[in-house]
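Bumping with the actual sequence this time:
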Amino acid sequence: MPNWIFSRTFARVYMNDMSGIRKIITTASVFFLTALVARGQKPASVGIPTLLQEEGFEDIRTKVRNDTLFASIEDRAHRGTFRGAAAAIKRVSEEYPEINQFEILLTDYKMPQLIVHAFKREGIWDVRVDREMESARKQLKTEKPQAASTGKIDITFVPMFSLVNNKLDHLFDYSLRIAPVFAATLWKGARLTLQPIFPIVNNLLDGDTQKYIQIGNATLSQQVLSTKRWKVTATAGFFNPERVGAHLKIGLHAFRGLNIYAEGGYTLEANNTMVKGFGIVSNSGKLMLMAKAEYYEPHSKLQIELQGGQFLYGDRGARLDVTRHFSEYAIGLYGILTGGEKNFGFHFAIPMGGKRQKRTWFLRPRLPEYFSWEYSYQSYFKYWQEKMGRDYATQPDENHSAHYWEPDYVQEYVSRILNGTFH
């Protein structure tokens, strides 16, 4: 065979072999890349809990059914009661566009408070918030929770400032203190709180208890029930540096926007300073009994509260609060008529901490979500001397913004965040 014929034949065979090798390499590359992409894209049922955990949520339960996500989340990362729901929906919808319907249960100390229904239609989010939680709770009943919050401790550094201007010999008394709150969830519905108070600077007279280290709040609170219609919470411990006892609060969600409460507490006078020691001063207890109606009007964003009964030190009367909500700000006026005397003042709660404060460790130091303050006029000597119109807070972070689980309020701001009209 001539050499040139052999060379052409060999070249043709070689080229044919190279073509086959290229096909094999190309096919293998396609399979490899496909496998790599598939490995990176976890199924929604597996990837969503991880995604929510990265966002800072705890006690996460999820279930995907067709194109609907059922989820239950505890939010200790985002400020207020609405940012967490919006962040969860936004994050999941971006990563898993096949999810079209969201049913998100919002919990507080592992107890369900509200459910957010969200659906995106023609680029616009349709959001509805209510207390129709039973269906979602059944869907998630068998799902194992992830990222448990049990036993994790938050240390919230709370400033306390008081100003009293009813003195005759000088302009006013002032006191600045720092009161870190140690709080942990023990089990479902249970919150353990300890709040020591440390004086920083003041012009108070010797013997005034605010000059010494105190225990401002040391309580165990148990939310017994939280359903569409009822909410029941029991609390025991030190409610403030002067009162120790037990408190029960029963709430009825009468209809949308209107809640009715009956609450009562029995407390004893206590010594609660490092100088005088800790203990009960008097066995003569005080009974506080109150009935309260609370209404939220969504168009004006007014929260109207009317309560009446027997105050902490035995005087009987009524108190009216009118509070205006400006997104996360709450500013209000109040008036009290009791024992033939009257008083009035104002209060506010303003955002203080960051919009998001994730918990990455067992122990988390943080700023308070809100700074709240109430000013009391108290121009009448008898009102001040006989301690009229007094009550107490069972939790140190009680105000008109924190833990405010009002459906219309949460619905408005979840919708506005998702649709880009609020940040």
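The tokens above came from a reply further down the thread. Helices lie at 3-40, 44-55, 83-95, 134-140, 381-385, 407-418.
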